[in-house]
Amino acid sequence: MSDEFFAPSYTIREACLQASSFLAGHGVEEYRSNAELLLLHVLEVERPVLLRDWSIEQFPPEKAEAWIQAVRRKAEGEPVQYIIGEQWFYGRPFTVTPAVLIPRPETELLVEAVLEAADGIWPLEGDAVPTVLDVGTGSGAIAVTLAAQRPRWRVSASDLSPDALEVARMNAARHEAAGRIAFVQGDLLAPFAVGAEGSASAGLAADVLVSNPPYIPADDLPGLQREVRDFEPHLALDGGADGLDPYRRMVEQLPALRQVPRIVGFELGMGQARDVAALLEQNGAWDEVRIITDYAGIERHVLAIRHAN
């Protein structure tokens, strides 16, 4: 791949415009915003500073090689979040690597729903606080956000991938929540089951279960956007034949826990909410099962609540 998008004589603005055109020619969506994000990262400046100086300042020669490499990686389809190593979630920056899914804005709605439901059962000014399980934590975005928003809560987070857990621990430390989150490796609810061997969280009495598990049907993986298909971890994407395997298995694993959580919040893929809601309703452990739509009007989350203990 040639570097025809850059010349040493370019101003910062010219470098951005040429890179945008280059990315567009390689099929990159939102090519201008991607180019600006890469530029902010490479130059290590905030956007107001960039816009103030970019028409008059020459592109710093010492940053040229990093800029060329970043743009080339984006042209090859790599998500910009992996290139810059960061994604914002619920107003906080989270470290991301190819070991974890990139946190999405719609998942913030799941966090909000869990916070609201839990505050109705365990008031902020009360003495009782919930114990929360975040299953398939990935980057730790959900677990760390809950711990940061509700410092008194007890949070445990699991993931099958040890590499993902390392990223989650980094984010917990980054947001000063490391001492309030327990991380454990294991498959779905297995590390929390009574008698689970080798797990420090075995037999934990959980009040809240939240999870954004793999939910893409296996046959749909080849048709995903290339940034997702070719770069994000398939372990965190593949939900089995119909995408619902993790939900079925978690419901099947519930009896192995010390108690059935009073709140269960799941994120799902398009067209799956009704099936997962029915799965929870059939279990009969909750008074209310509601479906939450995301910003695009897609039924994206299912929340089950038992109001009385």
Descriptive report:
By secondary structure, the chain is of the alpha/beta class. It contains eleven helices and nine strands. It has helices spanning 12-25, 31-43, 47-53, 64-75, 80-84, 105-121, 141-149, 162-174, 226-229, 245-253, 273-283; strands spanning 86-89, 92-95, 131-135, 154-159, 181-185, 208-211, 263-267, 288-293, 299-305. The strands form two sheets. A seven-stranded mixed beta sheet has the order 5-4-3-6-7-9-8, sandwiched between helices. Helix 8 links the parallel strand 4 and strand 5 (181-185). Helix 2 (31-43) packs antiparallel against helix 4. The radius of gyration is 22 Å and the shape is elongated. The model has no long low-confidence stretch (mean pLDDT 94).
Secondary-structure blueprint of this entry?
Layout: H1 12-25, H2 31-43, H3 47-53, H4 64-75, H5 80-84, E1 86-89, E2 92-95, H6 105-121, E3 131-135, H7 141-149, E4 154-159, H8 162-174, E5 181-185, E6 208-211, H9 226-229, H10 245-253, E7 263-267, H11 273-283, E8 288-293, E9 299-305
Parallel strand pairs: 3-4, 3-6, 4-5, 6-7
Antiparallel strand pairs: 1-2, 7-9, 8-9
Helix pairs in contact: 1-2, 1-4, 2-4
Q: What is the compact description of this entry?
A:
The chain is an alpha/beta fold and 309 residues long. 37% of the residues lie in helices and 15% in strands. The strands form two sheets. A seven-stranded mixed sheet has the order 5-4-3-6-7-9-8, with helices on both faces. It has a two-stranded antiparallel ribbon with strand order 1-2.
The beta-strand count equals 9
Average pLDDT works out at 94
From the spread of the alpha carbons, the general shape counts as elongated
End-to-end distance, in Å?
62 Å
Low-pLDDT stretches are none
- Please tell me how large the radius of gyration is: 22 Å
For the largest beta-sheet, the strand count, sense and barrel status come to: 7 strands, mixed
Beta content comes to 5-15%
What class, by secondary structure content? alpha/beta
Reading side by side through the largest sheet, how are the strands ordered?
A: 5-4-3-6-7-9-8
